[in-house]
Design goal:
Distance between the termini: 20 Å
Structural class: alpha+beta
Number of strands: 20
Order of helices and strands: HEEEEEEEEEEEEEEEEEEEEH
Low-confidence stretches: none
Helix content: 10-25%
Largest sheet: 5 strands, antiparallel
Mean pLDDT: 90
Shape: elongated
Length: 263
């Protein structure tokens, strides 16, 4: 019965972690470029009352044994790598990736960050930056007198200036692709960091055939969180937590009955 208490408690802790992940997904259901996470679980160690394959007699062995599980634990939060819905904004600096690539951002620490959010702006010097002021990599500077900015599907950035009939190219956006994007480290502010698990980035121009994706100007990728699905998962987590709490209550009542036998 004491074993049941600890086993059920591990299940309650696992469902609490599951609910925490669901809450974060729902909180970011309107965050541009956000990719939802789902919690993966695994069972804990088993206590062998009778080991499978143990000798039952001189000629026979136990077919399945008697093993009692000791609960569950969360092992990872997997990033769901699905394309979010693209919505039109009309802003010429809003970019959406149609594919699996990431924008490259130069962080204040000197590291390169990666993001799916293409909500870009200009700083006082005309550099293309994120809302937090981190410049896009490779850096692109827009002339102050530019009357229009055009970003092609292949990442080519061109501007139209007064007195000119043809657009002038000022830079090219490069995207990064990872063999295991689920291994990226979430750093907040829509930024991911490279890890050993993610592998080295594969950098290339948009529009290729390697799955890195193409760019859509004037559009933003919305969060890929399905609110309806998250509410369903929340109900499942709540019922799982409730079931484990009932096991705790049942084990406690059994222990009370045993204690009353000695009175």
């Amino acid at each position: 019965m004491i074993r049941a208490l600890y086993t059920a408690a591990s299940g309650m802790n696992a469902q609490q972690m599951n609910l925490d992940a669901i809450a974060n997904n729902l909180a970011n259901s309107s965050t541009a470029g956000f990719q939802q996470r789902t919690v993966q679980f695994s069972d804990l160690l088993y206590q062998n009352e009778i080991a499978p394959g143990a000798a039952a007699s001189q000629q026979t062995t136990v077919a399945s044994g008697l093993q009692v599980g000791l609960g569950s634990r969360p092992t990872s939060t997997e990033i769901i790598q699905t394309q979010g819905q693209l919505s039109s904004t009309g802003n010429q600096l809003d970019l959406a990736i149609s594919g699996q690539g990431f924008f490259q951002i130069l962080l204040p620490s000197g590291q390169t960050g990666y993001t799916r959010s293409g909500s870009l702006q200009l700083d006082a010097q005309g550099n293309v930056v994120t809302p937090n002021g981190d410049p896009l990599q490779p850096g692109i500077t827009i002339p102050p007198d530019a009357t229009a900015i055009t970003v092609g599907a292949d990442g080519t950035v061109s501007v139209t200036q007064p007195g000119q009939t043809q657009a002038q190219q000022v830079g090219s956006i490069q995207l990064a692709l990872f063999v295991n994007p689920g291994g990226l480290n979430s750093a907040g502010n829509n930024i991911y960091l490279q890890t050993t698990a993610s592998g080295d980035p594969i950098v290339g121009a948009p529009g290729g055939t390697d799955g890195i994706g193409s760019l859509q100007q004037g559009m933003l990728e919305q969060s890929n969180v399905s609110v309806v699905d998250q509410f369903v998962q929340m109900i499942v987590a709540q019922r799982g937590y409730e079931s484990n709490s009932r096991v705790v209550k049942a084990a406690d009542e059994m222990m009370q009955q045993i204690n009353q036998l000695s009175q």
